[in-house]
Design the sequence.
């Protein structure tokens, strides 16, 4: 999906976001968020991918890719690793596992990925206490809240739906 949008050549950046996420502060500008995260880089044009971790490592439920040939090459590298692992080990990796493994390789494309704090584009609520090293849970005013793995943390017939209903009233329009 991301590659298709990049190839359409209509956007500078593409934000991939899982369906179990709410934008909770509509006054936050994604463009500003990208600029702020790249501001301290000596060569910001060399960064093509903004990713976040959670307590288990990479969480690709929210990442931002520059619309560039390098981003497509990066995604091709992730797919190639996925396909190689499936053929060699007989195990089908998830997209997240494939990207996490690719980011740990020595492939030159990895240097174009930048880890940013989880709470900036992938904040988890207190019910899902799986935070990156910043240990910052979602709070009112943050950009997004992601209910990743709600089924493992919240009991009920529809854990994600329950959390969406709970946090819907906290959205800043």
Sequence:
């Amino acid at each position: 999906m991301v590659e298709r949008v990049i190839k359409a050549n209509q956007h500078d950046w593409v934000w991939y976001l899982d369906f179990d996420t709410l934008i909770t502060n509509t006054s936050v500008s994604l463009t500003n968020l990208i600029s702020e995260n790249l501001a301290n880089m000596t060569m910001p044009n060399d960064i093509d991918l903004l990713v976040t971790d959670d307590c288990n490592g990479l969480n690709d439920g929210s990442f931002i890719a520059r619309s560039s040939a390098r981003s497509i090459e990066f995604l091709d590298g992730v797919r190639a690793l996925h396909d190689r692992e499936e053929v060699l080990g007989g195990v089908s990796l998830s997209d997240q596992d494939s990207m996490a493994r690719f980011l740990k390789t020595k492939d030159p494309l990895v240097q174009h990925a930048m880890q940013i704090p989880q709470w900036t584009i992938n904040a988890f609520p207190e019910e899902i206490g799986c935070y990156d090293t910043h240990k910052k849970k979602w709070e009112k005013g943050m950009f997004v809240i992601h209910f990743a793995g709600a089924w493992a943390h919240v009991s009920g017939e529809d854990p994600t739906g329950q959390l969406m209903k709970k946090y819907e009233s906290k959205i800043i329009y």
Q: What stands out?
A: The chain has a mean pLDDT of 96. Strands lie at 13-17, 21-23, 49-54, 57-66, 113-115, 144-146. The helical segments are 2-7, 30-38, 69-89, 95-103, 118-121, 150-153, 159-168. The radius of gyration is 17 Å.
